Amino acid sequence: MTLADVMTIKLNDKSADFWIDRKGEPSENYKFDYHGVTITDTDKLYPKYAYYLMQHLYTSKRISKILETDEKFSTKHLKLIRIAD
To answer: Beta strands 18-20 and 67-70: pairing type?
Structure first.
């Protein structure tokens, strides 16, 4: 099972279960430039559990290993995570 089997991630999704900002921090509040995460299979993964799991990854600095800083553009890009994962 991969994350793509149980969730979808879309930019500017107002109807999502929770959102992730560009630094990788999850939020329960919508903003126009956040990526919305919608749990599609709630039998396998509860939306609140997924939110707290992402919050744990962010606070334990594990999400920083996924993000890579591009010095040329001074932006962060996802390096290892894909929606297909």
So the answer is: unpaired
pLDDT value at 67 more than 50: yes
pTM reported for the whole predicted model: 0.71
Give the start-to-end residue ranges of the domains of the chain: 3-78
Instruction: Give the C-alpha separation, 37 to 5, whole Å.
Output: 13
Distance CA 27, CA 55 (A): 8
78 Cα distance to chain centroid: 10
Label the pairing between strands 18-20 and 35-39: antiparallel
Nearest to 16 by CA among 5, 1, 30: 30
Cα 32 to Cα 42: distance, rounded to the nearest angstrom: 25
Pairing of β 67-70 and β 75-78:
antiparallel
CA dihedral of residues 18, 20, 25, 30 (deg, nearest 10):
-60
